């Protein structure tokens, strides 16, 4: 899988806010969403629309950089190794992209 690339769903968007815009939006959607943020802080989010339902996922640290690298054509290995951070959890980030509906398909790499 290291040479695999990801084709993102056409409706998936990566957003970087200087405010807690994604948390504020989520807190106003009803249900058991997160509470409105107590402090103003920057956030990065992934917005997807699987089955015409808008989903906003606040990205964990390094999530934006990982997803952006993949969106720009990096392989899974290139995106993960490019972060050079021991705290980066490849599996969690990849599962998050799939669960959110951001991944349209996997493009296998050529065999070595």
Q: What's the mean pLDDT score?
A: 87
Sheet/helix structural class: alpha+beta
**Poorly predicted segments:** none
Tell me the distance between the termini.
11 Å
- What count of helical segments does DSSP give? 4
The number of E-state strands comes to 5
General shape = globular
Q: How do the SSEs run, as a string of H and E?
A: EEHEEHHHE
- The radius of gyration is 15 Å
Largest sheet: 3 strands, antiparallel
Q: What share of residues are in beta strands? A: 15-25%
Number of domains: 1
Lateral arrangement of strands in the main beta sheet? 2-3-4
Percent in helix: 25-40%
Fold and architecture overview:
This protein is of the alpha+beta class. It has one domain. Helix content is 29%, strand content 21%. The chain contains 4 helices and 5 strands. The strands form 2 sheets. The protein has a 3-stranded antiparallel β-sheet, sandwiched between helices. A hairpin with a 6-residue loop joins strand 3 and strand 4. The longest helix is centred in the C-terminal third of the chain and has 11 residues. It starts with a strand and ends in a 5-residue tail after the last strand. The relative contact order is 0.27. The model has no long low-confidence stretch (mean pLDDT 87).
